[in-house]
Design goal:
alpha+beta, Alpha-Beta Plaits
Length: 148
């Protein structure tokens, strides 16, 4: 094996680029080098992508106007949920007698995100009003950005 083909302890794509530049044999080696750089970049991007989960929290309060639901349920729940690690976004919809909040998480699977939300609600949100139902929590996994 010649000294020019021995691969030193550097990343593969760097070695290929140096090898192609050193040999200056033809444009084919440069295309291979650029292709290996593109593949290495794509692999690194895919490795950093993580799962995404959407958690839905629905709470009902009997005989309440949307303004009352917003003040008594939606805003306090949003405050608790916004403090959670991994929260990407929070969307809410308040209507007569119902609050619906969707929390998007990055880096957590559906079950882990659901458990995180349920734990946060049990610790950080307690309302003694008997008209307010216990929040119903559901979660789904969303396709990762790499799958789109």
């Amino acid at each position: 094996m010649s000294a020019s083909s021995v691969r030193p302890n550097i990343p593969f794509h760097t070695w290929v680029l140096h090898r192609a530049a050193a040999s200056r044999s033809d444009a084919h080696m440069i295309r291979i080098a650029l292709l290996s750089l593109a593949v290495a970049t794509l692999l690194a991007a895919c490795a950093t992508r993580s799962s995404t989960a959407l958690v839905s929290v629905t709470t009902r309060i009997q005989r309440a106007t949307p303004e009352c639901v917003e003040a008594r349920v939606t805003v306090p729940l949003e405050r608790v949920l916004s403090r959670l690690q991994g929260v990407e976004s929070i969307r809410s919809r308040t209507s007569e007698a119902e609050s619906h909040i969707e929390v998007s998480f990055t880096g957590l699977g559906a079950e882990e995100a659901r458990g995180t939300v349920e734990e946060a609600l049990s610790r950080g949100w307690t309302d003694v009003d008997p008209r307010i139902s216990k929040p119903a929590v559901r979660a789904i996994s969303l396709p990762s950005p790499a799958a789109k």
